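[audit] Reproducing an earlier prediction to check determinism. Same input, same settings, fresh worker. If the tokens differ from the archived copy the diff job will pick it up downstream; this log only records the rerun itself.
[audit] input (166 residues):
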Amino acid sequence: MVTTPQVGDFALTRIEGITGRFVAAGQALVGDAAPVQHAFVYVGNGMVVQAMPGGAEMIPIEEASPVVQWSTGHFDLSEEQRDAVVVEAVALVGTPYSFLDYASIALAHYRIRPAWVRDYVASTGHLMCSQLVDEVYLRVGLHLFDDGRIPGDVSPGDLWKLLRSR
């Protein structure tokens, strides 16, 4: 398996400290015990785009959480698709973050999510990290999930399971 990222690949990472433990606990509550809590897109030149509570940002990869797994080699992307992933990821810089999206995914797991919450998550006016990855790929016509989920119903653990199944 190739582990050197290519432009347009995404990465899964662990979050250290109290924040990482909080996210991991939340994931465990919904049956998602994946060893990752964060995701970002590699846009080349040593830079990544990631969703953060202050809004999506583009930062040097050295400032990002250490990578547990890259998507490299899991998807057969053309050069044009990779370039399009970069364009779309960069276009999302500044997109607000939403903690409600985490709660929505948990509610969906327990089948008690109100329609207004589902619709809020399906909008693209806000993104958490795994949603950013999914949205970028959707925008370039690459559907990571074909299981009928609505756009935005994706956690870092879902991305982890996807890579493990490929």
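[audit] rerun output stored. Observation attached for the diff report: The first strand starts at residue 10 and ends at 13.
[audit] end
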